[in-house]
Amino acid sequence: MKKTNKIVIVFLIVMFLLSFTNLLNIKIDGEVLKLSGLSVIIGVVAYFITRKTNNNKNEGLNIKTIFKDFKDHPKAIIYAILPFVTCVLSTVIANRFLPEFNEHVNNRASFAISEDLMKTILMMAVLTLGEEIAWRGFFQKQTSKKMHYILSIIITSLLFAIGHYSAGAFAVVAYDLLFVFIDSSIFGLIFKETDNAWCSWIPHFLADILGVLLII
Questions:
Q1: Which of 173, 19, 25 is nearest to 101 (CA)?
Q2: For residue 5, how far is the Cα from the chain centroid?
């Protein structure tokens, strides 16, 4: 158990550090090297390595109980609606006051968005599931064992937002990261209610698809 706790701490520290790498603006052949994405891979690996420390192997990620978890936790259903509201709200406000916001997000997520909508949907499904397993299933779950869940959600969401940093005009970047933080906090609340990353993945994935459609 002590050995496992040390491994958990190492993984948490590595994810913490990787989240800030986008801020360094490291470039190779003129292209910005976005290493923060590695935090998702590390988090997914960490989840499956350390899941034996949970009460059961499916804790934090159980596809069989999605509907039951939502049914048993009505708050989670309400929380799951909010990302769609923030998605539309952020777009409406941006179109009125920050018209360059859509281009900024499109450039930030260009690696996942293509002209082939089905390919984009598949890519978004995989990426968002990885993010939920890494940041909610592992990072939030492990840190919430050591601190109040609200503080855990805040820290997780701050790192999650920083990991989405992409260089640009200060107002646009700040606006982008603010809504990433808000949405991450909502996903954190869903996970806290259900203890199931599948439940936080559903609104995360669908809201991101809506965001792509609004940008297009």
A1: 173
A2: 24
